[in-house]
Amino acid sequence: MRKADKITTYDGDITKHNCGLSEEDLETIRSNVSIFIHAASSIHLKKGLDYMAQQLLHPSVAIAALARSCANLDLFIYVSTAFSSTFLRQGSRGSPDGLDAVIKEEVRPIRSDPASASMDVEAELSDLAAYGSTPEYRFVDHPFAYSYTKHLTERVIERDFKAAGLEDKLLIFRPSVIAPAAAKPYPFFERPGSAPTTLFAASCIAHPPSKMVFSTQLDSPSKALVDAIPIDIVVNRLIAHTAARTRGHVHAVAGEGNRLPTERLLEVCMMLRQPWWPKPTIEWRNEDWKSPSLCRLARLFVGAGAAFSFEDGKTKALWEKMDEAEQAEWPLFFDTRLLFDSKSMRAQGPNVKKLMAMSIKQSSLPKDMTVKFMCRSFS
Fold it and tell me: InterPro entries given for it (predicted)?
């Protein structure tokens, strides 16, 4: 594509005014670009709200404004997260019996009155600017500042597009947990550190042989499910919905029947520990998912004890419209459980070991020797 001159790159910075672009570059974009895909985002889940506002909220709102200034705008796609509405827990309307909430392909206001949604956004932005936080963040059980900021960003962008009469040119695209590739460019492809499921495996193997404490509000931890989707399937869904000019909100998720039980993921990860590296005991408690009594891994993967059901009806409807050749070329569904059987996990071994080496901070032995001591060989 580069040789065919189909890609033009700009040296910019989305945290700066006008994305750090020159007036000439901005004019070129405004005159020629019809589709925006905004996927740039910080994924530092442990960062605070002020950091997320500066790195995620304000740049995204600015890029959306740039898109609305384009004369030929056809579609603006904001890549958010399926977990933006996971402050909805058990007891929410539509929750399956004994499980967490059904997350619909829509934006759910945090306050109960939908009619005041626009006013709520203004109040939140004012509070955030004045105090560095908001009541909606402090008093609602969000997993991270990241997920709340994504939720707020969705609502601000949606408000601005409606105010401009351009709501029919907006797609909010929500992937769940990103997993290594199913097939393209090759099976298990990932950039080190970009797939949370691989980080989960590396952390399980490196965990000391003590106790791992996880949180769940489910009536049984056996009901906890991980919704993870391979990165190439995410890309396929993004391209397919862009081509179909889908509007509104779309989930890119494993979906019903394709989610992985958390207990099974833990079991497979523990199988990768060396036999002389004892396995930790695992304890489940009905505590807040950010409780200090939880193990470090549980506080990072706060959804490990949850079982959210993300609707993906728009993708199912799109799939039905595709012919057999299109479905073969652009698969939109994948049974994620296939990535996490013992054989597949061994195939992901090199990436797991890279992450282990990156995460080991202190050891009396060289990092590679420490990794070999903890983790089985994958040859």
Answer: FAR, FAR_NAD-bd, NAD(P)-bd_dom_sf
DSSP-derived 3-state class of residue 248: strand
Alpha carbons within 13 A on the beta-carbon side of 355:
21
Residue 147 within any structural domain of the chain = yes
Taking the C-alpha atoms of residue 231 and residue 181, their distance in angstroms, rounded to an integer, is: 5
CA gyration radius for the chain? 22
Q: What's 150's domain CATH number?
A: 3.40.50.720
Widest CA span in the chain? 65
Whether 7 maps to a domain, the answer reads yes
Alpha carbons 379 and 375: distance in angstroms, whole number: 12
The secondary structure of residue 349, as a DSSP letter, is H
* Three-state secondary structure of 112-136: CCHHHHHHHHHHHHHHHHHHCCCHH
Instruction: Look at residue 241 and tell me if it is in a domain.
Output: no
The Cα–Cα gap between 297 and 4 comes to: 46
Tell me the pLDDT tens digit for each residue of 19-43.
999 999 999 999 999 999 999 888 8
Domain encompassing residue 108: 1-175
Query: What is the number of domains present in the chain?
Result: 1
67 lies in some domain: yes
Does residue 338 contact residue 183 with C-beta atoms inside 8 Å? no
Contact, 191 vs 273, CB < 8 A?
no
The pLDDT tens digits for 173-192 are 999 999 999 999 999 999 88
Half-sphere exposure at residue 185, Cβ-oriented, CA atoms within 13 angstroms: 3
